[in-house]
Task: inverse folding
């Protein structure tokens, strides 16, 4: 078991690591806190000293492209129509899986994906709920520290998970710290990164993973998972944030845009060149121009008004190029992209191609991550239900949905319906060659109907034959009655 000093050491070492520093940059940019916020301007004064220029405009506006790209990828990844991502062909197993992978789980998975893309990796941990089954919750990677017995070990001996509980009086930060191993979890409280003490709010500390009561004897029983219940999802092999390939482009866009705003703010007023001013000082001149809109000059004096042409075209062109490259190298969908007006389904799919490529790469890692959780869920289901379900009985459905052109869809449906009608008419024309059962089977295939589901509802061939003979007999009787009536009318005439 780790001591308090060891826990503080591992937390401090982890917080200053290069890995967490880079993850922090991704978090900042996802929250719209770009480097432009710290931008300052300097100049050399008359004494040759470098001083900050606080007279010029210094507009600091972040343009959160990365926020949009992250949310795009997450929502597109989870854009399944019915929101069911874990499926099974066994109805009973599907019912049990739906209890675990419900809306609450999807909400936590969304947070995991957001953290994975913005930081480079993220976690989900399992805990036993009051309903007697495992639940899963997102854990921010910035507060998770993996501790190994040796650096060369694959698995963790401990996982330290901390989060800020609240900010108390005098801006003191209260941290909750949990130390997990394969048998139990120990709870601590830390105030302003000082002394680490056992959490007095926990009655049993350290506490096994599972605590439950039996109503028969009102006894308390303990159990453990046998593993550290933290599951990690990586954005890529090196656990690098998605902001890395586009950070410089976003910074350049911020600089160009804010520079243009500064120019407009600094040079939005005309310059007045005054000759022969009849006054005491320049302050009086400025007041007269602002209030009275007039000034006094001598017989040889005058006022010339000059404006400054701001070279905004170059900045605009650079901003447009940066924006295009941000979506290109960020592999996202640019909703502001202007085409030729011919927005067909093919054009829409082509605009989603980079986002599809990025999500395909993430899907491979997401399925591996989900398999780890599925293994835990199936073990619990088999233990409770007395079954032997395997991972091969379950599959993941991350089929993504994109917007489509309604006119194209209607035309496609019309074409498919016409094609089906031609096929059915062709099959019906073979009634004298093929038997009725074969014709019905082929029509069911065309209409995507399961023949086995409807064959018992079809009338018996003998009954159909008798019905056809009865109809033919009635037609003959009807024709004969009509013919006799016509003959009688002819004779009376």
Result:
């Amino acid at each position: 078991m780790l001591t308090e000093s060891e826990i503080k050491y591992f937390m401090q070492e982890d917080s200053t690591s290069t890995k967490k520093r880079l993850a922090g940059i991704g978090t900042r940019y996802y929250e719209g806190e770009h480097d432009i916020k710290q931008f300052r301007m300097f100049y050399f004064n008359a004494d040759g000293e470098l001083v900050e220029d606080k007279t010029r405009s210094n507009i600091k506006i972040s343009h959160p492209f990365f926020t949009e790209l992250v949310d795009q990828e997450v929502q597109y990844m989870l854009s399944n129509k019915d929101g069911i991502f874990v499926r099974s062909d066994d109805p009973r197993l599907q019912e049990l899986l739906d209890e675990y992978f419900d809306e609450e789980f999807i909400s936590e998975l969304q947070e995991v994906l957001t953290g994975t893309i913005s930081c480079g990796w993220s976690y989900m941990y399992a805990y036993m709920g009051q309903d007697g089954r495992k639940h899963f919750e997102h854990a921010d990677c910035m507060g998770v520290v993996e501790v190994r017995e040796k650096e060369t070990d694959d698995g963790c001996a401990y996982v330290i998970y901390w989060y800020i509980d609240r900010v108390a009086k005098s801006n003191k930060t209260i941290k909750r710290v949990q130390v997990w191993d394969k048998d139990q979890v120990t709870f601590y409280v830390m105030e302003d990164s000082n002394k680490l003490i056992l959490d007095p709010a926990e009655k049993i500390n350290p506490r096994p993973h599972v605590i439950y009561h039996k109503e028969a004897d009102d006894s308390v029983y303990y159990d453990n998972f046998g593993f550290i219940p933290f599951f990690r999802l990586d954005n890529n092999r090196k656990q690098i944030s998605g902001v890395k390939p586009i950070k410089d482009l976003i910074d350049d866009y911020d600089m160009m845009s804010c520079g243009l705003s500064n120019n407009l703010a600094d040079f939005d007023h005309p310059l007045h060149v005054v000759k022969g001013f009849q006054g005491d000082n320049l302050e009086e001149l400025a007041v007269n121009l602002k209030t009275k809109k007039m000034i006094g000059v001598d017989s040889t004096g005058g006022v010339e008004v000059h404006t400054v042409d701001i070279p905004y075209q170059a900045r605009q062109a650079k901003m447009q190029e940066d924006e295009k490259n941000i979506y290109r190298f960020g592999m996202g969908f640019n909703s502001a992209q202007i085409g030729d007006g011919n927005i067909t389904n093919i054009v829409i799919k082509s605009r989603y191609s980079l986002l599809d490529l990025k999500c395909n790469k993430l899907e491979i890692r997401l399925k591996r991550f989900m398999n780890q959780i599925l293994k835990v869920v199936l073990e619990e289901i088999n233990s409770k239900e007395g079954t032997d379900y395997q991972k091969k009985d379950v599959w993941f459905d991350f089929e993504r949905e994109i917007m489509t052109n309604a006119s194209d869809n209607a035309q496609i449906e019309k074409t498919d319906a016409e094609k089906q009608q031609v096929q059915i008419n062709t099959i019906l024309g073979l009634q004298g060659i093929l038997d009725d059962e074969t014709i019905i089977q082929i029509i069911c295939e065309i209409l995507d109907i399961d023949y086995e589901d409807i064959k018992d509802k079809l009338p018996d061939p003998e009954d159909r034959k008798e019905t056809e003979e009865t109809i033919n007999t009635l037609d003959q009787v009807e024709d004969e009655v009509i013919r006799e009536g016509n003959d009688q009318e002819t004779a009376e005439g």
Notes: Residues 274 and 293 are 14 Å apart (CA to CA). Residues 353-385 form the longest helix (33 residues).
